[in-house]
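Section 5: illustrative case.
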């Protein structure tokens, strides 16, 4: 289920399609062996475009402080809608997993509907996976891999080697913002637009361990796990903040070395600030307790 099991499959395309039903990174990477290249990163479809000459393009006094404070600004803002795209590439093949939903940054809770890549064998596409994001846990429904459709799977994010930065097929938007607390070597690129909103573009690297040390309590354990699980603590990023300092878009680039190099580009787009977000956790009887197929 987790990152330990990364592998590529080049066997029968039917098996690759079956593997694509799981959201875990291990299964996503298996799907790379049987799926063709997917287009672009969906969360970037409302992405940045040039806006030269628009507004004040002077760099902020401290770009690093602006980026490291983005998570606090979101917490003060309250909630937002989110679109995500996770593009994975290995051996010249890539797939993209897309998600959409909302996050309450004050309550540290969110919900995403994650869409898996289409099956190139022509089999019916797997139902979207519903993910509930709460402090310390990830819940998934319609996960596949032997789990009944009416049951949920609960994962302890602090027990995942990647802290659920990749496992769920979407980086938790809250974790994506908290990860920026470890930002360093930040440069101000310039002014641009994201989905019609004027933003400031920053580029740099973030240190997962450093971010974990200053992260909010609900995310701290997951980032501590990621700091131990990734081969490199340094994660390149591009972040886009609006005039109020709110994070509008962030792209992180993770790299795994597991049976080959696996490059992951995770993009989170935030909009619709203030939109109410309701997360209802499943009853204990609705959580699957059986063995999960790999």
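Designed sequence:
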């Amino acid at each position: 289920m987790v990152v330990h099991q990364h592998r590529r499959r080049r066997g029968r395309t039917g098996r690759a399609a079956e593997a694509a039903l799981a959201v875990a990174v291990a299964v996503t990477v298996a799907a790379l062996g049987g799926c063709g290249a997917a287009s672009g990163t969906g969360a970037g479809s409302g992405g940045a475009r040039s806006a030269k000459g628009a507004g004040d393009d002077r760099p902020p006094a401290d770009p690093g402080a602006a980026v490291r404070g983005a998570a606090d600004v979101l917490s003060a803002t309250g909630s937002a809608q989110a679109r995500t795209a996770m593009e994975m590439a290995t051996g010249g093949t890539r797939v993209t997993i897309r998600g959409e939903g909302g996050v309450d940054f004050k309550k540290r809770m969110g919900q995403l509907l994650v869409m898996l890549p289409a099956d190139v064998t022509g089999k019916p596409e797997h139902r979207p996976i519903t993910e509930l994001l709460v402090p310390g846990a990830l819940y998934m429904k319609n996960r596949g891999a032997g789990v009944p459709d009416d049951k949920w799977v609960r994962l302890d994010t602090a027990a995942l080697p990647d802290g659920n930065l990749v496992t769920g097929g979407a980086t938790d938007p809250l974790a994506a913002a908290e990860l920026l607390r470890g930002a360093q070597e930040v440069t101000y690129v310039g002014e641009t637009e994201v989905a019609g909103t004027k933003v400031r573009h920053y580029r740099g690297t973030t240190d997962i361990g450093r971010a974990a040390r200053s992260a909010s309590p609900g995310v701290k354990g997951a980032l501590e796990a990621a700091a131990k699980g990734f081969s490199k603590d340094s994660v390149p990023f591009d972040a886009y903040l609006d005039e109020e300092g709110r994070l509008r878009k962030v792209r992180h680039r993770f790299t795994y070395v597991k049976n080959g190099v696996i490059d992951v580009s995770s993009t989170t787009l935030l909009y619709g600030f203030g939109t109410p977000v309701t997360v209802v956790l499943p009853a204990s009887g609705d959580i699957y307790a059986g063995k999960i197929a790999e």
